[in-house]
Amino acid sequence: MTTARPTDTPTPSAAAASAATPADTGAETAPRPADWPLWEVFVRSRRGLSHTHAGSLHAPDAEMALRNARDLYTRRSEGVSLWVVPSAQITASSPDEKDAFFEPAGDKPYRHPTFYEIPEGVHHL
Q1: Per-10-residue mean pLDDT for the chain, 125 residues long?
Q2: Which of 6, 26, 87, 97 measures 20 to 30 Å from 103, CA to CA?
Q3: CA nearest neighbour of 74 among 112, 41, 98, 114
């Protein structure tokens, strides 16, 4: 039969572990996965010409983000190129401000294909 050890008496291994901190030993603590930055992943498929957003992942640095993105988003060899971008570096327009943001393009008729006349000799434009 065993008896329970009192909870207020630390075990020798617990006392040794609590006595030495990483700052005391000079060792740096590695960031935990929960503290890693978020990366956005863009994949260019074999048939596509542009990269499309595939998803997000956490990684400690760009190299690891690229390797993890390769493993997660191109498992079936469907991608030919990957981009990983820190989420904190992406700036986006707000959908609530779309009318004011895109309004300046409305007063430029030369951007619309109806402004141009197609010559008779051009068949595939």
Answers
A1: 50 50 58 88 92 96 96 88 95 88 71 73 78
A2: 87
A3: 41
